[in-house]
Amino acid sequence: MKRLLASCAALALLFAIATPAFAHAVLIRSSPAPNAALAMPPAQVELWLTEPVEAAFTQIKVLDTSGARVDDGATRVDPGDPAHVTVGLRSMGDGVYTVSWKALSSVDGHVTLGAFPFAVGKFDRAALAAAGAASAETSAANLSEVIPRWLMLLGAAMVVGGYVFSAYVWRPVWGQIVHREPDRATELFHSIERAGMALNIGGSLGMLLWSASVAGNLTLTRAIFDPALGNLLFGTRFGLLWLSGFAFALLVILSAEKWEPWLRYVHPLAAAGILLTHALNTHAAAAPDPFLPVFSDWLHLVAACIWIGGLVHFALGLY
Question: What is the spatial distance between Cα 76 and Cα 256, in angstroms, rounded to a whole number?
Answer without folding.
Answer: 47
